[in-house]
């Protein structure tokens, strides 16, 4: 129970820092995350999914090849498909990409806001929170089926 509360608290804090939403892919193996948390508007998620943008998303591409943090504006040069420009039509004006590799496992996240760019200190704090979330979910395969169901329910609640 304590681990779920910790995970929920971390997700809530990351959500608070992402007024326009986020997408967090935890423990990516090959191209599939073990856990995916999304709070972007349903309209954007539907469009993103229907048009297969994950294959062209510069946040995803950068995050799979690097570790650290970048503002979305710094990734625009890699956006050949115009994903970031389309995102602006859905209120995702500014954002941060964060990728971590800890204990042999990679997690990638995109955080968005409509009002301004993220400051360096904010991005560093979000990277720390993402690292905590990454480590808190690292051993979840050992949790009971009930605990895994509760975490899945939390993911659904955050996504919708």
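-> sequence recovered:
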């Amino acid at each position: 129970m304590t681990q779920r509360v910790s995970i929920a608290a971390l997700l809530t804090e990351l959500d608070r820092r992402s007024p326009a939403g986020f997408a967090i892919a935890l423990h990516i193996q090959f191209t599939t995350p073990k856990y995916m948390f999304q709070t972007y508007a349903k309209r954007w998620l539907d469009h993103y999914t229907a048009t297969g943008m994950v294959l062209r998303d510069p946040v995803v591409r950068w995050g799979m090849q690097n570790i650290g943090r970048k503002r979305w504006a710094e990734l625009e040069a890699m956006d050949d498909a115009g994903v970031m420009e389309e995102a602006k039509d859905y209120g995702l004006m500014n954002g941060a990409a964060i990728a971590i590799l800890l204990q042999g496992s990679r997690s990638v996240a995109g955080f968005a806001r409509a009002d301004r760019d993220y400051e360096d200190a904010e991005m560093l704090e979000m990277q720390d929170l993402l690292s905590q979330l990454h480590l808190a979910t690292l051993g979840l395969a050992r949790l009971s089926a009930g605990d895994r169901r509760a975490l899945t329910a939390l993911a659904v609640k955050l996504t919708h």
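Strands lie at 21-29, 32-38, 68-71, 94-102, 105-113.
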